[in-house]
Specification:
With 110 residues, this protein is an all-alpha fold. The protein contains 3 helices and no strands. Keywords: Membrane, Transmembrane, Transmembrane helix.
């Protein structure tokens, strides 16, 4: 979507909102004044600045949550890897013990 399309959509949404609000209040607001008001709001630098600040806060908040999830996952994986390393050590000890027994049996038989 281009910038012009986004602008037109936002203008239409604001116009419909203003028309609905005007009907609720009992005013007979015509489409021209609604579009004019929506145009003034859309052209206001304050609105876009507030939206930009909200977007930045939203991105930082979500990235913080994502980082926390990633760190938790990293801790879990580190613990699992430690358990695997311990299991490998135990297997290595068992194999070394088995190898020693086999060597003793070979010496005893031959």
């Amino acid at each position: 979507m281009g910038n012009g399309t986004c602008y037109r959509i936002s203008m239409l949404l604001m116009a419909f909102y203003l028309l609905k609000k005007g009907q609720r209040l009992g005013d007979r607001m015509d489409i021209v004044s609604a579009v004019t008001a929506a145009s003034h709001i859309a052209n206001s630098q304050v609105v876009w600045s507030i939206l930009c600040i909200c977007l930045v806060v939203y991105v930082f908040w979500n990235s913080n949550k994502r980082e926390e999830r990633l760190l938790k996952n990293l801790e879990t994986l580190t613990e699992a890897q430690g358990e695997q390393a311990n299991a490998m050590r135990e297997i290595s000890k068992s194999l070394t013990s088995l190898e020693g027994r086999m060597d003793r049996m070979e010496k005893h038989i031959f």
